[in-house]
From TrEMBL:
Transmembrane segments: 33-56, 68-88, 108-128, 134-152, 184-202
Sorted UniProt keywords: Membrane, Transmembrane, Transmembrane helix
Highest taxon of source: Bacteria
The name this protein goes by in its record: CHASE2 domain-containing sensor protein
Organism: Nonomuraea rubra
């Protein structure tokens, strides 16, 4: 037997097994970097823009209007949504049966929830001052994100997803109580940064 034909060492076999296990996990459950990090970057950019508009007092910290800040948030979320949709599409190709059905219904729940949010907020926005209307949109959207993350954690038996939903709910509640500027700041730092951290952590755990 030549040197090239010798059996691999236990260390090499363990490395191959770990690499294949990680690849299989990403194939079955999706790549966390693709599913979480784009949303984190979008929230850091968008809610930082809103924070600079609102400030923590009576004056803005930068010459940016609310619509410009919302434009940054929406544009970055569109990119994040496209990347996440690509990740979920790859995931759905790999999963069949009941898991695929649960994933499809869960996706429809997101669509229905945010459609209803748009209807409610569009109806209420003219009745509120600019800052409070912005807080209404942000607060309700994060409430939906928190509830659907916790529901998704329960449906898919995913504890990190469930607990992260609870973290979103807690940060959102505190921000709503403190006001629009604080809400934008806390969301950018603790939730935008949180999405990035969760994505990196879950990827390392795979």
């Amino acid at each position: 037997m030549t040197e090239d034909e010798q059996a691999p060492s236990p260390e090499e076999m363990l490395r191959v097994i770990e690499e294949q296990s990680a690849a299989t996990s990403r194939w079955l459950y999706g790549d966390p970097l693709l599913l979480y990090v784009p949303w984190g970057v979008a929230w850091v950019l968008g809610f930082t823009a809103l924070f600079l508009h609102y400030g923590l007092g009576d004056e803005s910290y930068a010459p940016i209007s609310q619509m410009q800040a919302v434009g940054v948030l929406m544009a970055s979320q569109l990119v994040a949504g496209a990347l996440a949709a690509y990740g979920y599409a790859r995931l759905n190709k790999a999963v069949r049966g009941d898991s695929n059905a649960r994933g499809t219904m869960y996706g429809y729940a997101w669509f229905a929830g945010f459609t209803l949010m748009v209807v409610i907020c569009t109806r209420m926005t003219p009745l509120l001052p600019e800052e409070e209307s912005g807080l209404l949109w942000a607060g309700i959207s994060l409430t939906l994100v928190a509830a659907l993350h916790m529901a998704g954690g329960a449906v898919f038996l995913n504890w990190p997803m469930f607990f992260f939903g609870g973290w979103i709910a807690a940060v959102n509640a505190l921000g709503v109580l403190l006001g629009a500027g604080w809400h934008a700041l806390l969301t950018a730092v603790l939730l935008g940064g949180g999405f990035i951290a969760v994505g990196v952590f879950l990827r390392r755990c795979q």
